[in-house]
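If I may wish for something, please sit down with the protein I am sending here and say whether tokens and residues agree:
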Amino acid sequence: MNKYLQDLIKLSKFDTAISMFEPKIENEKAKLATFVETAEEIKASINTLYLEVDDIKSKRTKNNIHLSELKSKLEDISKKNDNIHTEKELKALQLEEEIAKEQISFANEEITRLDALSESKEETLKDLQEKLTEEEESIKDIQVAVDNSIEEINKERNVVYQERSELLEKFDNKILTFYEKIKRWAKDSAVVPVKKQACYGCYMKINDKTYAEVIKSEEIVNCPHCGRILYKEDETEEA
């Protein structure tokens, strides 16, 4: 195989590997982000529950105040009974007493309802806090695993950068410029294999003459359709 073509294949593989490192790192970070997002959602739910519990307690306090006022009102009504002179006054006082008692009954029922609701919210709050603790513990463990994975990826990337740099030191400048021009638009597919007599960049079938030149590998051959640099893989590699 042409030496320049061999170098181009190596360079292309280095560039393809380099372009994959950042997505690998982002993928590792995404694993952690999922757990962090879940923890943030739990925190938001906890904050909402705290507000709801505070609102329930505020309503209960208002009901207690109202209940105290109603009890005072009943005591006043009881005292007024001693000063009733007419049946009309008696009926009015009885009606006032009946309304006060109904309001007391309603206030007691509302306090019972609020207490039950508060208890339910407190239980949910407790469950969420336990769940948050578990999530935060998981985040710590995953953070360590992700950091280790990213460290390994960066080590691997440094090795590839070093090998690429060593390759470029002995690279022919004209060939490198030629490669970079194709790479501007073809990205990581500037150098592609030919399989089943088709360019694996544009997937168009190449003619017999071009295919024969690719098989010989004596010269650098471009795809007649897209312009990418072509090469024939070893039989084992292609399989």
Notes: The radius of gyration is 40 Å.
